[in-house]
Write a structure and sequence with these properties.
It is a single chain. The protein is about 75% helix and about 5% strand. By secondary structure, the chain is mostly helical. It folds into two domains: about 60 residues, Orthogonal Bundle (Arc Repressor Mutant, subunit A), CATH 1.10.10; about 140 residues, Four Helix Bundle (Hemerythrin (Met), subunit A). Helix 4 packs across helix 6. The radius of gyration is 19 Å and the shape is globular.
């Protein structure tokens, strides 16, 4: 069954509000306040809250309000574990069908991002460019499965992890991005050799590194 519930308008507004800082992790709001912040009337808000609670993004506390999830260690670990299960499964299919064009484009795009991160230019612009590339690379691996339900779930996990990374980010984040580029390139190199098992090992090492960087931050 496809996770089309993520097409819920309130869910999209909630994610956008988290992204732009209107809502922040750990924040407690009333239903009335959340209606105003998201621009929703009460009935669609209640429908959205059922979905958000199911996804572990809010806690409904009687007489207190609605608490936005704060990404603690367990939240981060669970999202990473689920995401890597999906990507390992997907990479076995993707590795058999990946094209030389995709590999060349990915390698060049990563090297361009590395240059932009190290040439002394605006960091925010370089960070945004790499965030888009990072999301694209992982998403396109999962798209190889041709399964909308898995892709929707993977997207939600990516959004959860990005939220956690924003919360726990500390000085030195540029270095973390450069490490990520190196880890991605090891996956790409294994795929260039048509070494799917090597690519999976490199993917696992990448997620171990990413998890450590999030916790260590």
């Amino acid at each position: 069954m496809s996770d089309v519930r993520q097409d819920n308008d309130g869910y999209r507004r909630f994610r956008a509000a988290m992204q732009d800082g209107t809502l922040t992790p750990g924040m407690v709001v009333t239903q009335t306040e959340l209606c105003e912040l998201l621009g929703l009337s009460l009935t669609p808000l209640r429908e959205t809250l059922v979905l958000l609670e199911e996804f572990g993004l809010v806690e409904i506390k009687p007489r207190t309000g609605i608490r936005i999830v704060y990404p603690e260690v367990a939240f981060i670990r669970e999202n990473y574990q689920f995401r890597i299960m999906i990507e390992i499964f997907a990479l076995r299919s993707f590795g058999d069908t990946v094209t030389e064009e995709w590999l060349a484009n990915m390698r060049a795009s990563h090297e361009e991002c590395r240059l932009q991160l190290t040439d002394g230019g605006p960091f925010d612009e370089a960070q945004l460019r790499f965030a888009r590339l990072d999301g694209r690379m992982h998403r396109e691996v999962v798209e190889a499965l041709g399964n909308r339900a898995i892709l929707d779930t993977h997207q939600r996990l990516q959004e959860n992890i990005r939220m956690a990374q924003q919360v726990h980010r500390r000085p030195g984040f540029r270095g973390a991005l450069l490490q990520t580029i190196d880890e991605h390139l090891k996956i790409i190199a294994a795929l260039e050799r048509r070494d799917v098992d090597g690519a999976i090992a490199a993917l696992e090492a990448h997620f171990q590194g990413a998890t450590h960087r999030t916790f260590a931050a």
